[in-house]
Design goal:
heterodimer, A: about 150 residues, alpha+beta, Ubiquitin-like (UB roll), DNA polymerase, domain 1, 2 domains, 5-stranded mixed β-sheet, 6 helices, B: about 260 residues, Uridine Diphospho-n-acetylenolpyruvylglucosamine Reductase, domain 3, Enolase-like, domain 1, 3 domains, 4-stranded antiparallel β-sheet, 10 helices, about 25% strand, binds flavin-adenine dinucleotide, binds FE2/S2 (inorganic) cluster
Chain lengths: ~150, ~260
């Protein structure tokens, strides 16, 4: 079936099966930052923004994304570059596999709530799993970024 | 893996219902649960074009369409204030924000999952579901029904004066719960619901009038013991029956004391 959507600001089209998942479609379109970490909608690695809201691309039919505005990390490099260094400075990226999902969801968090408390950060990012770190590094990194913004 | 042959977006509930009468058809909610199933779906019926994605509030009720997401419910100010934060408390540990942006109320209630936080919290309210063919029936009745081929259109919550609290126990914060418990005091009546027994959530009343003189340390203790005796539990990978029964006592007592303290 034919599908049209806006991907990272550009209109795109494709021809997909009814059971095509958005994650596979996006990877075919070259957005390889979008990765599969589980098969159970649990890990958050596949997070993309649909109309500005973070969603799991591994669980969304491509046809459901038709007509919507999709952003992946490929299209949000500038926004991400503001805070990823702060997270890296805390050693939060070990194998780094979970990183794209964390970054995407942190973008969503900061758009929705530009000045979150630690508990709000934890709650918003609780759907992003990391096998290596204990989550404290990500929290410290985001906190340091927020403090740097306050001068 | 689930394979899908046809994808349809009906333009009326009647069309959706007719398509759904075929055994190989399935209604798509957020598809998070369905995606994990195996097999072949002949026609996937997407309800996205039917305007079921709104929460409408009047003086007397709050009506939540089947396609409203769990995240939209969680962020709805009136639902929060009306339920004293119990609805938000019940939804906040369901996997993550990205998940709750997709999971729908319709899929969550239709599933009648034993572990459902969603069913547990709404069952404690004066709530009704509208089924396309089955009409408006109490959620407590729907919770006991077998699956059929109807369509859940919306949930209706009657806005009676209400006090409410929600408690759950999880092994890890975003895992499915070991036990869920909601207590409400609506229009002079206490309701207690317990889910993840691990069977479907059940509704209980204070039939012995233990709380008739209001909540005290003693009456909360006595009611929680009574509830523990009433609630059937069993064991699974997350906990034994005996452990769950203890949790019924502890969580219901906590919820009652929250109501006593004005949450
Ligand atoms: C990994 C994982 C963890 C979870 N953890 C929790 C948890 O901790 N607590 C909790 O409460 N829940 C949990 N859930 C359940 C989740 O919250 C949703 O209830 C579930 O995904 C179903 O919602 P959905 O919108 O995805 O429905 P779908 O998967 O799309 O549908 C579920 C079923 O309902 C049918 N259906 C959908 N909408 C309608 C309708 N309007 N009318 C008739 N039939 C309909 C579908 O055909 C299907 O049979 C979890 C689910 C998953 C996958
Ligand atoms: S790949 Fe794990 S949630 Fe999508
Ligand atoms: S750094 Fe390895 S999974 Fe997070």
């Amino acid at each position: 079936m034919e599908v049209r959507m806006k991907l990272n600001g550009k209109n795109i089209t494709g021809d997909v099966r009814p059971d095509s998942l958005l994650i596979d479609f996006l990877r075919e379109k070259g957005c390889v930052s979008v990765k599969r970490g589980c098969e159970t909608s649990n890990c958050g690695l596949c997070t993309v923004l649909m109309d500005g809201k973070p969603v799991l691309s591994c669980s969304l039919l491509t046809l459901r994304a038709a007509g919507h505005d999709i952003f992946t990390l490929e299209g949000l490099q500038e926004e991400a570059s503001e805070f990823v260094g702060f997270i890296a400075d805390q050693g939060a990226d070990q194998c780094g596999f979970c990183n794209p999902g964390f970054v995407m969801n942190t973008i969503a968090l900061l758009r929705e709530n530009p000045d979150p408390t630690d508990d709000e950060i934890r709650a918003f990012l609780s759907g992003n799993l990391c096998r290596c770190s204990g989550y404290e590094g990500q929290l410290r990194g985001i906190r340091n970024y927020l403090s740097s913004r306050h001068g | 893996m689930l394979t899908i042959q046809n994808y349809v977006r009906p333009q009326s509930l009647q069309e959706a219902w007719e398509l759904n009468q075929k055994r190989s058809s399935r209604i798509a909610g957020g598809m998070l649960w369905m995606k994990m199933s195996k097999g072949n779906c002949g026609t996937l019926i997407d309800l996205s074009d039917l305007g079921l994605n709104t929460i409408v509030e009047t003086e007397k009720e709050i009506s939540i369409g089947a396609m409203v997401t769990l995240r939209e419910i969680e962020l709805h100010p009136s639902l929060q204030s009306y339920s004293w934060g119990a609805v938000q408390r019940a939804l906040k540990n369901i996997v993550g924000v990205q998940f709750r942006n997709l999971a729908t109320l319709g899929g969550s209630l239709w599933g009648r999952f034993g572990f459902s936080d969603v069913l547990t919290v709404f069952l404690a309210m004066d709530a009704y579901v509208e089924l396309y063919k089955g009409g408006i029936i109490p959620l407590s009745e729907f919770a006991k029904m077998n699956y059929d081929r109807d369509i859940l259109v919306r949930l209706i919550i009657k806005k009676q004066p209400c006090l409410m609290a929600y408690e759950d126990m999880r092994i890890a914060s975003t895992d499915i719960p070991v036990l869920t418990c909601a207590i409400s005091y609506i229009d002079g009546i206490f309701r207690a619901t317990v889910g993840a027994r691990p069977g479907r959530a059940m509704l209980f009343y204070d039939e012995k009038g233990i709380l008739s003189e209001w909540i005290t340390e003693e009456s909360a203790e006595a009611f929680s013991r009574y509830l523990m005796e009433q609630v059937p539990t069993s064991g699974n990978i997350r906990g034994s029956s005996a452990y769950r029964s203890q949790l019924v006592k502890v969580l219901s007592r906590r919820a009652l004391l929250q109501i006593k303290g004005g949450n």
